[in-house]
Design goal:
- By secondary structure, the chain is an alpha/beta fold.
- It has four domains: 154 residues, 3-Layer(aba) Sandwich (Alpha-D-Glucose-1,6-Bisphosphate, Chain A, domain 3); 102 residues, Alpha-D-Glucose-1,6-Bisphosphate, subunit A, domain 3 (Alpha-D-Glucose-1,6-Bisphosphate, Chain A, domain 3, 3-Layer(aba) Sandwich); 92 residues, Alpha-D-Glucose-1,6-Bisphosphate, Chain A, domain 3; 79 residues, Alpha-D-phosphohexomutase, C-terminal domain (TATA-Binding Protein, 2-Layer Sandwich), CATH 3.30.310.
- Helix content is 36%, strand content 22%.
- The chain contains 16 helices and 21 strands.
- The strands form four sheets. A seven-stranded mixed sheet has the order 1-2-6-5-3-4-7, sandwiched between helices.
- Helix 7 packs across helix 13 and helix 10 packs across helix 13.
- The N and C termini lie far apart (50 Å).
Amino acid sequence: MANSRKKNYSLRADVQKSVDSGNLMVSVSGIRGTLPGGFRPDHLAQFIQAFASITGNSIVLGNDARPSGPAIRELIQGILKLSGKSVLDTGLAPTPTVKAVVNQKKASAGIIVTASHNPIQWNGLKFLKKGGFFFGSSELESWKESLALATDVTVPPAKLGNTEKVDGISLHINSILKRIPNINQIRKKKYKVVVDAVNGAGREALPALLEALGCKVVRLNCEPSAGFARPPEPTPAALKEFGKLCQKDKVAAGFALDPDADRLVPGTAIAGAINEEYTLPLALMGFVQSLRSGTGKKKGSGVKQGVVVNLSSSLLTSLVAQEAGLPFSRSPVGEANVVESMLKTSAVFGGEGNGGVIDPALPSYGRDSLAGAAWILSAMAQFNITSLDGMLQNLPAIHMRKEKIEMKRPRIPEAFKKLKKSMGARANVDERDGLWLGFPEGWVHLRASNTEPVVRLIVEGRNATDLETLHQAARKSLGMRN
């Protein structure tokens, strides 16, 4: 689709002004902007025209549940049709569902209208290329070049495009049901499960999948509301009601989502909402157990490829992978980076510690909350365990802290230098994505966010004492009070 280019193109001056104001963000993670301020209709029209000029004929389109989503989707539809494109409209749909439809329908590209976990005044665009993969750096540069050239791809009236409605959720669910090897075993368990969908894009999809797996679903925040019922990012503070409901209803498991349903946070009857870092290792346990039983192994396949996670993910996934004899590696943060590494290494499983499970055998091939929930239930059924609390007994505790630090961009390089000078001498240093320092007792990762105007400091220790020591040392290096 897009040729690799050495030249990097600057954004147009009027667009860059919105970026400089903090109201618009443009990166390989997509475009996100505030309404009003960052997502101006005239800019949106230019963004979509630039996208149309570098993509093929068929475009899949979907949106999350933000109030501005339908209006933006209609604007995008109009511009794509004026550009002669055939639009496959999934309507309200999770991000992994739109990705899966691009793959399954062999479409040229896709657009997801979502700002993920950003506050409700934000919205965004995630661009997909053929196969349902997110744009990488080369596609982003092609888009920026087209934007700078103000390419007009309007067609004559006789060549206008059209729109076709697509039930993407059913296509996505069916692909997962075909993938999970022990669905009959799961159905016999009749698990009671809470779903907190934050009234977002997963409010129909995840309950439907769970019911297809024989679960009794207790719905929380699964209403067609014009807003989020809780803060959109599924943090412990945001999931208090979810956690209490898991405990009150004595559920087998609970699953909470972010607005576009690519991230998954579990809950249990005893602990309530648990650390999102447990999602990936729990799902991996389901996949690993299917390999051991032979149900998840391809016929004639004797080679075990590895597991890939990002630099900010917990050590816990590496323990599960290594115990199963699967090679383990890390990539820079961001779904596109993890997927790129998985493709290069022919990985069999992967993801991100923020609740993002990636199963390369699914058409979504990216962070997929539905796949994560299905693999966790698969693990529970294979181990003949009645609740997620029982699964947690097989895993060590996670000792991790994640911190957002407001920092002006000109100060960020100096922060990296200070941290490396102070703690880098005895560390395994990785500078592919900010600064990652690995130690026998844990690791420290400092990186600038692609999606928010903050710097993230993530620290993990092998025990509580190691965590405290590493966290205090990192904060001291950055000139912060402990």
